[in-house]
Amino acid sequence: MQPLLPSLALALCSLALALAGPLPAQAADEHAGHHPRAQPPEAAQVQFADVELTDQHGRPVRLKDEVVGDRIVVMGFIYTSCTTVCPVVSAIMQKVQAQLGDMVGNEVQLVSISVDPLRDTPQRLREYASQFQAGPGWTWLTGPVPAVNDTLKGLGTWSADFTSHPPVIMVGDGRSAQWTRFYGFTDPAVLVGRVYALGAARQHTPPGHDGPGHAAQAAQQEERP
H or E stretch including 40? Predict the structure, then answer.
């Protein structure tokens, strides 16, 4: 079965956000572990695996250093053969891209990571991304299965059965290491609001004091002889 068309995905997204109701039986069968209803966000501690992934253009990249960097990031998790929940997650990301405008590709980075790297080749991701008008600043990642699994485990989003992975979008700051997980079909405006909140926090943080990430780095430096 082919992925949903963007227009249909957007319609489903709007319906889910308005009603927050359960998916139809077919969706429940295909995504037994999915819980589309939005749940309270939670603060997240993440660890970036030191592995090499591959973007939609076939280029090797390291998530922490080359994609996240010191940017504010909105990160989703999908697989291209999914015909129910994943297109809605991508449609939400598309709305975030539209609402953030020129911020995407500059201080903000969007990232979609495939949870099915065995089948999701760079070409397949590139074709899928085009359905959601993914522009510069929206990176789609796949890679060797062990590397992707290590990445997902470090982000707290790995599932033994990728078809049952929960719908989750993460928003975080690569500079301060402050991350939040949003479960279910989160209103794009909520995600955008979190992006702006992280940006505002930067304005009130003295240089060299960028939160937990800086504190950990400073502690390591103090321990060195």
Answer: none
List the Cα angle 41/47/50 in 5-degree steps: 145
Q: pLDDT tens, 108-157?
A: 999 999 999 999 999 999 999 999 999 999 999 999 999 999 999 999 99
Protein fold of 6-216: Glutaredoxin (3.40.30)
Indicate the pTM of the whole model: 0.78
Q: Is 86 annotated as a binding residue?
A: yes
Q: Assign 176 to helix, strand or coil.
A: coil
Query: Per-residue confidence at 208, pLDDT binned at 50, 70, 90?
Result: low
Residue 63 CB partners (closer than 8 Å, separation 6+): 48, 49, 53, 111, 141, 151
Structure tokens at 94: 């598309």
Buried b (16+ CB within 10 A) or exposed e, 100-126: beebbbebbbbbbbbbbbeebbbebbe
Enumerate the domain spans of the chain.
6-216
Instruction: Find residue 16's DSSP bridge partners.
Output: none
